[in-house]
Structure formats: C-alpha cells, structure tokens
Amino acid sequence: MKVRNLFVLFLSLVLCCCILIGCSNTSNSNLDDDSSGGSNNSSSNNTQDETNGAESNNDGETVDLPDNFHIHSFNSSNVCEDCGESYEDNGLIFTKAANDLFHVTGYVGTASEVIIPSKFQGLPVAGIGYEAFAYKDVLVRVILPESIISISNNAFTNCENLTYISIPSNTTRIGNGVFASCNKLLQKENGVYYVDKWAVDCDEIATSVTLRSNTVGIANSAFYNCNSLTDVILPEGVLSICSGAFYNCAKLENINIPDSVIYIDSAVFSGCNALIESENGVNYVDRWVVGCNMTVDTVTLRKNTVGISTSALSGASITQINIPEGVKIIDRGAFNGCYNMVGVIIPKTVKTIGMGAFNNCDNLSTVYYTGSNSQWESIQIDSTNDSLTSASMVFNYIQ
Asked: Pseudo-torsion of CA 95, 100, 103, 106, nearest 10°?
C-alpha cells in the first residue's frame, strides 16, 4: 500500500484505540488472533451468534450487534419463518438464478447496516452478485447469512466506510476484487491482507508467507503475480482455494495443502512452473491433481493423491483412469468433456463428487467402485453427473 494510505490507517488505529480506552477498562484484543484483523487496521474479526444477538471475536469478547438483530428467513409469502415479521423493502435487489436460488445483485438503500436474509420468497439466498454493493460509501456493517455460498467479483469494491462483514462458514468462493479499496476493512499481516478469516490479497514483494492459523479460505487471485513468492505455509482449517489464487507465482517452490481442504478451483497454480510436478502426463501440487497433458490416454494417479481439483483433467483424451484409495475429493468439472473415457475406477474413500465432474463423458460405460452399493449411495454426488450415474456399476472392485 502507498505510504499515505498506511499513514491514514495508522491514524485510524490510534483514534480507535483512544476511543476504546476512554470507554472501557478492558484490555485491547490481540490482533494476531483476530481473523478479520491485522497489525495495520482496527476492524475486529467476529463471529455472529444469531440466537443471542451478539458476536464474539477470537478473544471471547462480545461486541454488540444492531438493535433487534435477527437474520430473517422469508417464506413464499415473504413472512419470516422464525419471527413472523413481514418483509420490508430495505433497498436490497434480489435476482432469481436458474437453479431456484436468489442472489443479492444490488443495493439502493440508505442504511449503513445491512442484514441479508437467509431466504427470500421461500428460496435460499445463496450469493452476492457482481458489484452488488460496489461504491456504496454509506455501508459500515454487513451481516451475511450462512446460506451464502459465493461472493462474486467486485461485490464490495470501493466501499470506503465498510468496517465489518461476516463471511459465513458455508462460503466457498470469493471472487476477484471483492474488497478492493475497502481500506477500513482490510487488515494486513506479514504482507497478506485479510477480511474475516479469508486471505484476499498480498504484497507483490512478499517472499515467504505463513497464513494465520484461523484462515479458512484464499480468495480469487489473492496471490496473483506475486513473482517474489517462494514459500507458502497453509494452516490446517483452510477449506477453499479459489480460482487463480497463486496464478503466475513463477518462483513459488513450496506449498502444503492441508487435509482440511475440500475445494481447489481452476487455474489456482497456473504459471507456477517451479512448483508443479508432472508424472505420466498428470500435474500435481502436493497431493492434489491440478492439471494434465491433454493427450494423456490411460492414467493411474499417484498412490498418495487425496484430491482432484476443479477442471484438472477436463477435455483430456483419457480412455481409462485409475483413482487410488485415499482420494476423497473429485471437484467440479474434474473430467468434464472427457469424451473418450470408457471406464473409471473410483475408490471407496471418495466422499464428494462435485457438480459436472463427469459432465459430457458420453462414452463412459462402466464405473468400477471398490466399495459396496450402500457406500456408493453415501457419496455426495452433485448435479450434472448423468454420465457417471447412468453408467454400469461394478461394486467391490479390487484394484
């Protein structure tokens, strides 16, 4: 950040500290343990408690929420299922998506504090749309419900007065520039910028990075083009690594992917040539498959593989693939468009198969599964996997 911005942030911190000292005899919270905080900013990282009307930060201190705090869940008649209150237009613009989910796509209200409902017209509110709240200087605090899965590009960009936002535990995707120029919200620690428990940006001159212990996600392009970056340590607890997170980090040589990770989006490690390992036409980072040679034919993945990332083998000329025991995650679109695939061996260790993982695998005829029928039924298989679910099944297959 520019020196002038750092100076402004420093003055803001001093002012906030003075106010806190004047209002309370309690000790200052530890910013290192604050999941939305860092050494250069004063925003606290809090988790919401919907039942008590209060939010608690990582030090166990309680911060008051707005009066009558409540996340509404509006039924088809727009009456809250919990409190019976009818919906009142507060300036939020809802758009219904093709999958019968609502997204908030705009805000024309004047309130500084906005609480997004978990349902609207009886359907889940699952996302915040592109530039939905961009350039809204009026915003100070935004509370999101647990139903929010994704926050799209530039959703809160240039909200210069925004000091608090809750990012739900169910959120798996945060797009590009979502919090750009939200200087009162962004908090920096060791060259990394955080919002709540998400890493969202990084100084391009950073060389070695250890993310905070409470980090749960890395936003789109968070470390994009960090050409000096050589080493990254991710803590256990990270769940999502979003699209292009480490794109073109050409000097990156070492990164660990914790067991907790369940989602690695597309192009996360594109251009990280010093990091990617290739074996038999398949590209790996740590124990995850992240890409392949498009002309690869019959494939047996490494024995220590635990996950196949989004679109990792999409469009490849694979005819047969052996997925070893130990793999737990097959992410979205992993084999999308593998038209030549006729057979796949899937281990009983697989827990989830993402949306469209086997979409357009029109010639897939046989699935060899190492577990039982009941174990297969317990796998979470998301939509658009008809090629997989309509194939002939061989249960209790021995690899």
From this structure: 10
DSSP 119-168: EETTEEEEEE-TTTTTT-TT--EEE--TT--EE-TTTTTT-TT--EE---
Gap between the Cα atoms of 304 and 260, Å rounded: 16
CATH superfamily of 1-189: Ribonuclease Inhibitor (3.80.10.10)
- Backbone phi and psi for residue 101, each to the nearest 5 degrees, phi listed first: -125, 145
The pLDDT tens digits for 142-170 are: 999 999 999 999 999 999 999 999 899 99
Residue 247 has pLDDT above 80, yes or no: yes
Whether pTM exceeds 0.90: no
C-alpha gyration radius of the chain: 23
CA-CA distances (angstroms) from residue 295 to 110, 280, 282, 286? 56, 11, 10, 23
Nearest to 251 by CA among 234, 283, 227, 269: 227
Give me the residue spans of the domains in the chain: 1-189
| Whole-number Å distance between alpha carbons of 28 and 59 | 10
The answer to whether the CB of 201 falls within 8 A of the CB of 187 is: no
Determine how many CB atoms are found less than 10 A away from the CB of residue 39: 12
Residue identified by tokens 């292009």 is 244
What's the pLDDT score for residue 69?
Answer: 62
* Amino acid sitting at position 220: N
Q: What is the pLDDT of residue 85?
A: 82
